[in-house]
Specification:
- This protein has 966 residues and is an alpha/beta fold.
- It is built from 33 helices and 35 strands.
- A hairpin with a 7-residue loop joins strand 17 and strand 18.
- The protein is globular, with a radius of gyration of 27 Å.
- The chain binds iron/sulfur cluster.
- Iron/sulfur cluster is lined by residues 141, 192-194, 227, 229, 500-502, 567, 570-571, 598-599.
- Residues 141, 192-194, 227, 229, 500-502, 567, 570-571, 598-599 line the site of iron/sulfur cluster.
Length: 966
């Protein structure tokens, strides 16, 4: 049994306002540890015992870090006295245990740190003043693309291309590894950040090292990450969420992460999932329910007997999609299932014992039951009501039951865009068109970039001893030859991808996909030849258990060869389609589809020419690959013809839960996890080994089109410039509708040749084939500022509609006062040269989607001084403040449309001289005829610390001044 004991004279005691709460706990093996006890705090403030579990974990951090300066006793008392329903104006200073990064966001963060060291050195200070104070782990996962697929060499070839394209970025990471003490990198080819975090980086509880205040004191794991889906870690009881890179930098440099005290919505799960229903179906249902419950900016905490029944990977799948349902977190408390998962993934006995003993001592162990906790609101779901589903074709919250997919697609095909439709003539739905083949062999599309001759070969081979069965399955014939002309029609599935941490971290759905593939192959089913099929798991463990379970050869037989260990299709790195498919789609305006086990399906996210994107469980991805079209009702129509020309239905090959459970033993082998992740240090791969990193404490910025010294500290002084109180004579850069995503603002995907960024790269002698993606070039501001608002699907409604009501897409504006059309980047340079400030006007949920600090950085570098919107997404709003851009919100039902703003007016923003959080502001609109109107707005600088950030010109100068002063 674990014991919690009070000590009158604790060796851990420090001068602390709540020193009395410092206690000790003992593990099963008799190891004693100190901890700041929440039950002890509850004796002083009884409300603590009724707090949601997630808030109690945050409270522990506030309590432990209470130093009377950054974190005060009042902070502790206020959070301890949290009421389920109250006005939310207090900010919580949350000191996190660690930070995780992915490579797209990690590289610009590293570039900012390196630039700070330049400033420190230039000011005669020790560059080591700039050093992360908490462990930082960067997992390289976002870069790999599916150029090659559908054959055994795909993984090797894609990785070689990845290293070829990203060498400069990887060299820079290696510099970071040697320059900063607490900065680690999980090299390419190991997996996806959130899955690696679940399986390896998360260690349960931490112990404060010797030499630091509170040495020997244990505390729960917590983190922020520079990726929205950081919330996946909430599945194992870790409090954490995605923040922008600039906030993460502040966090790693010793600033607490500040956030407004949240409402906490309890989500009670009851009952059990029915036979044949997957975790993916469940998460799509949860997403739909929570979107309707409006949980934006709130914590969601799962409780009840249905929650307790869910295995850890299912919880993690649900936690992963918190950004899709809009919550800050989707939190699951720690219980026996969490401990089972830690055992199954190879954590040590000592770690597991400390983890369990700590949580028991804190009375935080176990899933609460109804009535245990006071939540702001409660939502319920009977798991027995969940049905097989997909979500799409444009938004993750638009769930469709499997039996309605065909009808829904058929209806949306001719619906107007305002109804989320595709606006096509209904009569053309079933038209098919011939795509003239270029005779390229499958898996080697004509567009696949060439490798540098003689590039090192380094196979990340987990797939070692292939069975005779496998050899006969996959080598006796190609997966599916595609020579010859193919007809393409609306609804055709052109990409079928088993992808994304959301699902590939969950063995039950991966094993289900493998079992379905096995039954399909045995029944004689095949995958249609025009489909780009890929298997891209979030860790090598997946390949290992699929192979051990004997299922990998069947997936391969259907074209699902291993194509990479990384985000791939989920982040839009699906690689190109065959050129003739692109031609036939664009020439005939076809609405073709992707089916993927990812979590996002915004326009152009997966591929610029695929307008309908459906999120589905891995077994359904395989099923749709076989069916070949979303115009087939998988509940009533056969998937295809099997042996002897027999019709085979989905029900014939759908695996049972007993069949899946029988194979789970292959998926949770602690030894396999330990062996795999030991290689991060001992065997990171030959390609990684060959990357030369610069050395030294200060980076010297060799010429590169990937990495450049960011301009955010140019002209830095220790005294902030006086921030102007308001904005005068500004012009509108754009008028946007609702749900403008961070990908609209700062796309991650491909760079068009005729865009400002493309022209800049071409001007620097970069060939089109080597443009790579915006995501991979986030270390270079010259590319990124040109790419801001450059998404090919963004619609600036300042441009008048066409005769048919359609809107021009792409990053263009009307330069005022002439009204001449120009790229937003070019217009911004003209305005900046003339000293004219600019504004963005937008609708609801501005900045929704992935956390992306370049969406705010690019906005600031374009000279945009304020964004006036109906509402903001949480992270993007704080990133705007962090970059010194004002977020302002319309009041009531006001919008730029209701105010008749056209884009040719002049605008002033009036603010009080002393900025206060959420104070009133005024928008003064001067129309072209000189008429003036005054419109009230709310300043969305939400907290006192954000006022400081804004007045310092942003978070980075603020933190740098603090560090250099210290
Ligand atoms: S797989 Fe998708 S959701 Fe997961 S980290 Fe990558 S891009 Fe994000």
């Amino acid at each position: 049994m674990n014991r919690s004991t009070a000590r009158s004279k604790s060796p851990f005691a420090t001068k602390h306002a709540f020193a009395k709460t410092l206690k000790t706990f003992v593990t099963d093996s008799g190891i004693e540890g100190g901890y700041y006890s929440l039950p002890a705090l509850a004796k002083i403030i009884p409300n603590v015992a009724r707090l949601p579990v997630s808030l109690r974990i945050v409270l522990e951090s506030v309590l432990r870090n209470c130093d009377g300066r950054k974190v005060t006793p009042e902070h502790v008392e206020r959070l301890a006295a949290w009421k389920p329903n109250a006005g939310r104006t207090d900010e919580i200073p949350f000191v996190v245990a660690r930070v995780v990064l992915q490579d797209f966001t990690g590289v610009p963060l590293l570039a900012d740190l390196a630039a700070m060291r330049n400033v420190a050195a230039a000011m005669g200070k020790d560059p080591k003043t700039i050093e992360p104070l908490v462990p930082v782990d960067l997992v390289v996962d976002h870069s790999v693309m599916i150029d090659h697929y559908g054959n055994r060499k795909a993984l090797d070839l894609n990785m070689r291309l990845e290293f070829q394209r990203n060498r400069e970025r990887y060299e820079f990471m290696k510099w970071g590894m040697q320059a900063f003490n607490t900065f680690g990198v999980v090299p390419p080819g190991f997996g996806i950040v959130h899955q690696v975090n679940l399986e390896y980086l998360a260690r349960g509880v931490h112990k404060t090292p010797k030499g630091q205040p509170n040495a020997g004191v244990y505390y729960p794991d917590s983190l922020v990450g520079t990726d929205s889906h950081t919330t996946m870690i909430n599945g194992i009881g870790v409090v954490g969420w995605g923040v922008g890179g600039i906030e993460a930098e502040a966090g790693m440099l010793g600033q607490p992460v500040y956030f407004l005290t949240p409402d906490v919505v309890g989500f009670e799960l009851t009952g059990r999932l029915r036979e044949g229903v997957t975790a993916t179906d469940l998460v799509l249902t949860v997403t739909e329910i929570l979107r309707q419950a409006k949980v934006v900016g709130k914590f969601v905490e799962f409780f009840g007997e249905g929650t307790a029944s869910l295995d850890l990977p299912d919880r993690a799948t649900i936690a992963n999609m918190a950004p899709e349902y809009g919550a800050t977190m989707g939190f699951f408390p720690v219980d026996e299932k969490t401990i089972d998962y830690f055992r199954g993934t190879g954590r040590t006995k000592r770690e597991i014992e400390a983890f369990e003993a700590y949580f028991r001592a804190q009375k935080l162990f176990g899933v609460p039951k109804r009535g245990d906790i006071d939540y702001s609101a409660v939502v319920t779901l009977d798991l027995g009501r969940v049905a097989p589903s997909l979500a799409g074709p444009k938004r993750p919250q638009d769930r469709i039951e499997l039996g309605n997919v065909k009808a829904q697609f058929s209806s949306l095909y001719s619906q107007p865009p305002t109804q989320n439709g595709f606006n096509q003539p209904a009569g053309s739905l079933y038209f098919r068109h011939l795509a003239r083949s270029s005779n390229a062999a499958r898996g080697t599309p004509a567009t696949a970039p060439a490798l540098i001759p003689g590039a090192a070969r380094d196979v990340v081979e987990m797939v070692g001893n292939r069975s005779t069965l496998e050899a006969s399955l996959s080598e006796s014939e190609p997966a599916h030859p595609v020579d010859g002309d193919i007809s393409i029609g609306n609804g055709d599935v052109l990409i079928a991808a088993i992808t994304s941490c959301t699902n590939t971290s969950n063995p039950s759905v991966l094993l289900a996909a493998g079992l379905l593939a096995k039954k399909a192959v045995e029944a004689g089913l095949k995958v249609q030849p025009h489909i780009k099929t890929s298997l891209a798991p979030g860790s090598r463990i997946v390949t290992e258990y699929l192979e051990k379970a004997g299922l990998l050869p069947y997936l391969e037989k259907l074209g699902f060869y291993l194509a990479g260990y990384g985000c791939t299709t989920c982040i839009g790195n699906a690689g190109d389609l065959r050129p003739e498919f692109n031609d036939v789609i664009t020439e005939n305006n076809l609405v073709c589809a992707a089916v993927l086990s990812g979590n996002r399906n915004f326009e152009a996210r997966i591929h610029p020419n695929l307008k309908a994107n459906f999120l589905a469980s891995p077994p359904l991805v395989v099923a749709y690959a076989i069916a070949g079209t979303v115009l087939k009702d998988l509940m009533t129509e056969p998937l295809g013809k099997g042996r002897k020309d027999l019709d085979i239905y989905l029900g014939d090959i759908w695996p049972t839960s007993d069949e899946i459970q029988a194979l789970m033993k292959y998926a949770m082998r602690g030894k396999a996890f330990r062996k795999n992740y030991a290689k991060v240090a001992s065997d990171p791969g030959k390609l990684w080994g060959k990357v030369d990193g610069a050395t030294g404490q200060v980076y010297d910025w060799p010429t590169s089109t990937y990495i450049a010294r960011p301009p955010f500290f140019d002209g830095f002084t220790m005294q902030p410039a006086q921030a102007a109180a308001g904005i005068t004579e500004a012009r509108a850069m754009a008028l946007f509708g609702d749900s403008i995503t961070t990908d609209h603002i700062s796309p991650a995907g491909s760079i068009k040749e005729d865009s400002p960024a493309g022209a800049w790269l071409a001007g620097h002698h970069v060939l089109k084939a080597d443009f790579n993606s915006y995501g991979s070039r986030r270390g270079h501001h010259d590319v990124m500022v040109r790419g801001t608002f450059a998404n090919v699907r963004i619609k600036n409604l300042m441009i008048p509609a066409g005769a048919d009501g359609s809107r021009e897409e792409g990053g263009v504006t009307l330069l005022q006062p002439s009204g001449e059309k120009a790229f937003i980047y070019d217009a911004a340079m003209t305005y900046m040269a003339a000293g004219t400030p600019t504004l963005i006007f937008a609708g609801e949920e501005y900045g929704t989607g992935s956390s992306r600090d370049w969406a705010a950085k690019g906005t600031a570098l374009l000279g945009i001084k304020a964004v006036v919107a109906r509402s903001f997404e949480r992270i993007h709003r704080s990133n705007l403040v962090g970059m010194g851009v004002l977020p302002l919100q319309f009041k009531g039902t006001d919008s730029w449309q209701s105010l008749g703003i056209r884009g040719n007016e002049l605008f002033d923003i009036e603010l009080a001289a002393h900025i206060q959080p959420q104070q009133d502001a005024t928008l003064v609109i001067t129309s072209a005829d000189g008429r003036k109107r005054r419109v009230p707005l709310t300043l969305r600088i939400d907290t006192p610390i954000e006022v400081d950030y804004y007045q310092h010109g942003g978070i980075l100068p603020f933190v740098l001044r603090q560090l250099l002063t210290a």
